[in-house]
Write a structure and sequence with these properties.
With 384 residues, this protein is α+β, with helices and mostly antiparallel strands. The chain contains twelve helices and 16 strands. The relative contact order is 0.17.
């Protein structure tokens, strides 16, 4: 079973995801320059959102190169700083296990571990002898990772495991249940330059601003796409169906309400999606991106407006692909207060893409309906 989420989200002037020059990321699509938000940026904003935190109530993942300090803090008494003796012991275990160091407290790779594993290693540092520490660390890391964010996003960390970590060789990777597309604008964009100054409040003999600079920004309407493999998610959560269901619910809420943090203090682009489509594919588990609905850029001026035309193109393309390829799915559409219906044109007239209870203007109701369908579909899968 696949759960796919498609979103149309228009952002006011912003710089949500920067490139190496500090400008908003872009790409060429359909022969035109588009605004882009990387999938990594989107996943991080969702993973760190308060909405997704509900799925991590029992145990959240920590992704860091500074694992030595994290374990040291877990070993320290409350309110105390990690001791040098503990840090040296922790560092030695990882060095002996084949993990490279950038400096005394930083690895040369990112580790993605549940908080429970870090706490268990911290406890081992306090209670065990140095000779027993390596085995305790290996045991804590080797334990099955039953953590929603790691199960969704995967863990690709590998290193030349040796010595006490020999047992971890080839067993550290967790297959991601989530596929996330780079968000792209439905229309062509041209990045703009903001010339700004900072005035000196204390006047002196020198005239003019105390600071002068330029910043690059744009404004774009994005198409976002996420796909979750239900079976892989359940497998990575050690068969915990209830936790998998909670993970999907919290991910859907986080995807709708979380925004990338890039330069938000300067632009405050906290814009909500104007349309969200959820597809639950049980009998036709074929993942489909609807990005090609926008291969021809939405024009600057259209009768429906930028958002309305983007949603109209999405609805038409969903219909055409689903009908043409025979892709069956339960579909649910949300637009705030039903501002934008999801429609297609057939027999020379506009028709709703989703009939009856599948379309709503209430987000809470939308989530309930979608999750009820997920529960029903997974119950059928369990019987098979």
């Amino acid at each position: 079973m696949l759960i796919e989420i498609h979103m149309i989200q228009n952002y006011s002037p912003s710089n949500l995801n920067r490139d190496d020059l500090g400008a908003p990321k872009t790409c060429i699509f359909g022969g035109a320059t588009r605004a882009r938000i990387s999938s990594q940026c989107l996943k991080r904003s969702i993973r760190r959102s308060p909405e997704f935190a509900a799925a991590l109530e029992k145990d959240g993942g920590v992704r860091t190169r500074r694992l030595i300090e994290e374990i040291g803090r877990a070993a320290a008494d409350k309110g105390e700083e990690p001791s040098e003796e503990h840090l040296r012991a922790i560092r030695k275990v990882f060095q002996d296990g084949g993990v490279g160091l950038k400096d005394e407290s930083t690895f040369d790779i990112l580790f993605f571990l549940p908080r429970s594993a870090i706490n268990e290693m911290g406890k081992a540092v306090k209670e065990k002898k140095a000779d027993d520490l390596a085995a305790a660390f290996a045991g804590a890391i080797r334990k099955f990772v039953k953590t929603p964010d790691i199960a969704l996003c995967g863990r690709m960390t590998e290193f030349d495991a040796k010595g006490p970590f020999e047992c971890l060789k080839g067993k550290f990777t967790v297959e991601a249940a989530l596929s996330a597309a780079h968000a792209i604008s439905t229309h062509a964009v041209v990045n703009e330059i903001d010339y700004f100054t900072a005035a000196d409040d204390v006047r002196g003999q020198d005239a003019g601003a105390g600071h002068v600079n330029e910043a690059v920004f744009n404004s774009a309407c994005f198409y976002k796409h996420f796909c979750i493999d239900w079976e892989q998610l359940v497998e990575s959560l050690d068969g915990d169906v209830d936790l998998a269901t909670t993970t999907i619910k919290c991910f859907l809420e986080g995807a709708a309400k979380a925004n990338p943090s890039g330069k938000q203090h300067a632009y405050a682009a906290f814009n909500c999606p104007d349309g969200i489509l959820v597809e639950i594919k049980r009998d036709s588990p074929t993942p489909v991106s609807y990005a090609n609905a926008f291969a021809n850029p939405v024009p600057d001026k259209s009768e429906r407006g930028l958002i309305g035309e983007s949603i109209a193109r999405l609805g038409q393309y969903v219909h055409d692909i689903a009908n043409g390829y025979g892709i069956e799915a339960q579909r649910f559409w949300f637009s705030p207060s039903n501002r934008y219906p999801l429609t297609y044109v057939g027999d020379n007239r506009e028709k709703p893409m989703i009939d009856g209870d599948g379309s709503t203007g209430d987000f809470g109701d939308f989530v309930k309906r979608a999750m009820k369908a997920v529960n029903s579909a997974q119950a059928v899968e369990a019987v098979r």
